[in-house]
Write the structure tokens for this entry.
Amino acid sequence: MDRVTAVLCSRNRHKARELEHLLPGWRIEPLDATGWPEETGTTYLENALAKARFGREVTSGGVHVLGEDSGIEVTALGGKPGVESARYAPEGAPAIARLLRELDGIADRRARYVSEIVCIAPDGNEVRGTGTLDGRIADTPRGTGGFGYDPVFVPDGEESTVGELGDAWKERNSHRARAARALLAALGSVVLLAAAGCGGRDPTSMRVLRAFFAHTQEARALGTRFPHLPGTLKCVLHQGGKTLQASCATDISLVKPSRAVVTLTEAWNHGASAHTWFFFIRRNGAVESVVQEGPPAPQP
């Protein structure tokens, strides 16, 4: 299977490798360039756009260009460091030490991670995806996984830090994972990704999809309107007594020798609204987990 070739407009190889795991079927390399624009934006989106547009200027074309900006926002610090997270202190232990020092004696430890990803396609089309992860700041660093503030960030519903939860947890739940899924949904899930080389109708993909729709109760219900092959079908949805013309799309990515991701996307309002199901499955069709993104889907 061919892969989407993309350049991440960052020198951070950690982010490049993480995004490569989060965007199945993509090969992502960090951009080696000089003359980087200063991050003067007041929002993550402004900074991500600036990076992506700079990358498009200095690359030869023919590849997808990604710009990503992210940060951590601490409630007791008025949302800081926020867009200044990368310049708050040198990454890793120095940044963590400063954050813990500023929170010393403060009971309110609420915080959230934010990630904004912008993709510029070879044809110049710009698409974005946003992801957030709520949590709190631990009293001391714990764990060696991840990078940045992960050793002190405890997600809501967890007792361990992201540094302790590990890479497998991050691939499903991190702010960057959520932004990547939102980006895939915004890209159209099937039409654009299939054109770029993601997904396909190879025999293994078809066998896995057949098993998924045959043996999963939720997939059987959704399968009454979603195609059982990678592609898009017109469908009709209902919302507030109105009939909506919509599209129902299926995509599959074979991620690892034993695993795959099935993506089901409903889009309505001429594509302005979409709801996506991401099924993380074994190749026998068994579902390990499912994540949903987007506004509640209308009824079929």
